[in-house]
Please model this.
Amino acid sequence: AQTVTQSQPEMSVQEAETVTLSCTYDTSESDYYLFWYKQPPSRQMILVIRQEAYKQQNATENRFSVNFQKAAKSFSLKISDSQLGDAAMYFCALGGGSEKLVFGKGTKLTVNP
Amino acid sequence: DAGVIQSPRHEVTEMGQEVTLRCKPISGHNSLFWYRQTMMRGLELLIYFNNNVPIDDSGMPEDRFSAKMPNASFSTLKIQPSEPRDSAVYFCASSYSGRAREQYFGPGTRLTVT
Model:
C-alpha cells in the first residue's frame, strides 16, 4: 500500500521569507511520481509542482522548489519569497502503479504580512 | 483551454432527496476521478474511470452512491437517497492516462444535506 504523511498540520511564514513543508511517503513501486497541490480558500485544487522518481534533479517552478530525497522517501516543498497569495492548504500526493493518487492530510500555510 | 467543469457549484437538499453532480473533463483526457473532501476524512477517492469504464469503485461509501460516464466528455455522481453525513465538497478531476499522471481538478460542488 502507498502512504503519504504530512507531519505539519499548520505552518506560518512572514511575507517575503522562505518556508519548507514536509512530506514523507512509502511505496513499493520503482516508477512513481510525486506532486504538491495547493488549495486556497476558494477550494480550487491547483497543481503546484511535479517530480518524477527517476529524475535526480529537483523540480522547480518559479518560487516553488522541491527537495526530493529518494532514499529517505522525503519530498519537501520550499516556497521562497512568500506572498500573501501563497496562504492555502498544501497537499502532497503520490502516484504510481495505477491511475490513482494518494494524498496526504495537508498542511495549512499562513502568510503573515 | 477550459478546465474541468463541475455543476452545480453549490447544492442544498433535504435528507432523502436524490442529488446528481455533474462533471465535464478536460478535452482529450481519458481518466476521470470523483473525490469527496471533508474536514474529518480529508480527500477521499470515490471512483475513477479510464476510457469511460469504471476501474476502481472501492471508495464508494455504499449503494446509495452511483457514478456513470456515458461518454468521454460527461460524468455524473448520484446520491439516492441523500443523508446529512453526505455533506461535503465533491471534486471531479481528470488526467491523460500517460506517464505524467497529474490530475487537474474542477472547482468542486459543495453539497449540504439538511
Remarks:
- The CA atoms of residues 67 and 112 of chain B lie 19 Å apart.
- The mean pLDDT of chain B is 94.
- Chain B is about 0% helix and 55% strand.
- Chain B touches chain A at residues 31, 33, 42-43, 45, 48, 50, 55-56, 89, 91, 93, 95, 97, 99-105, 107-108, 110 (CB under 8 Å).
